[in-house]
Design a protein that fits this description.
The structure is a single chain. The protein is α/β, with parallel strands linked by helices and 214 residues long. It has one domain (4-212): TIM Barrel (Alpha-Beta Barrel). It contains 9 helices and 9 strands. The strands form 2 sheets. The chain has a 6-stranded parallel sheet with strand order 5-4-3-2-1-9, covered by helices on one side. A 3-stranded parallel sheet has the order 6-7-8, with helices on one face. The protein is globular. The termini are far apart.
Length: 214
């Protein structure tokens, strides 16, 4: 199990700085979609808990790819959910909000904590609680200019990920990186339940191309 320090070391060596947000991932598509993403170099997988059969899907992915990727849950709102993910082998807990109990429980269980923040106050509180990554959400409302202003007062060693509205746009990715972002959560522009496996992997290729050409 990786702790926050190990994650930071691993993330700095990560080829592509993306967490794949697979909301609505089906049991049928779980293995082929994630195998394709991992083979392409996208090795951080989030299955939001408002996905049908989310725990079953996460457990399936951990059994299949647990030694190849960091897999965990998103939309985690309660400490009981953190414990369930720990029990099935999950390594990362991602939330849309900042909940002190959820962050502290995550760290007590030696998992990677990634709460959602929207203000500088929330960001500092998240750091105080022990968060490893700050998820700036929704990125549609936190432009590169806004993020840059926020990061002038936050620790230079932090991990700051815009999430929500990020797409395969090299200009967008580059603007956020220049503003101080270290990575991104990619959701609907990568995966929707209505997409075929081939469509998802095509989206992944476009995302990788955008990153390489930024």
């Amino acid at each position: 199990m990786k702790n926050g320090t190990e994650f930071k070391v691993n993330w700095s060596n990560n080829k592509y700085p993306f967490i794949a947000i697979l909301r609505g991932l089906t049991v049928e598509h779980a293995i082929p979609v994630c195998r394709g993403l991992i083979n392409k170099g996208i090795k951080y997988i989030e299955v939001p808990l408002n996905t049908d059969y989310a725990y079953e899907v996460i457990e399936l992915l951990i059994k299949e790819f647990g030694n190849q990727a960091i897999i965990g849950a998103g939309t985690v709102l309660k400490t009981e959910q953190v414990q369930k993910i720990k029990d099935i082998g999950g390594e990362i807990i991602i939330s849309p909000n900042l909940n002190e109990d959820v962050v502290r429980k995550t760290k007590d269980l030696q998992m990677i904590s990634c709460p959602g923040v929207y203000t500088v106050t929330e960001a500092f509180n998240a750091i105080e609680y022990g968060a490893d990554i700050l998820k700036f959400y929704p990125a549609d409302m936190i432009t590169p200019k806004v993020l840059s202003a926020m990061l002038t007062v936050l620790p230079k060693t932090g991990l700051y990920f815009p999430v929500g509205g990020i797409s395969a746009d090299s200009n967008q990715l580059n603007a956020y990186i220049k503003s101080g972002a270290n990575g991104f959560g990619i959701g609907g522009s990568l995966y929707k339940p209505t997409m075929s496996v081939e469509e998802v992997l095509k989206n992944a290729d476009e995302l990788i191309d955008a990153w390489n050409n930024r």
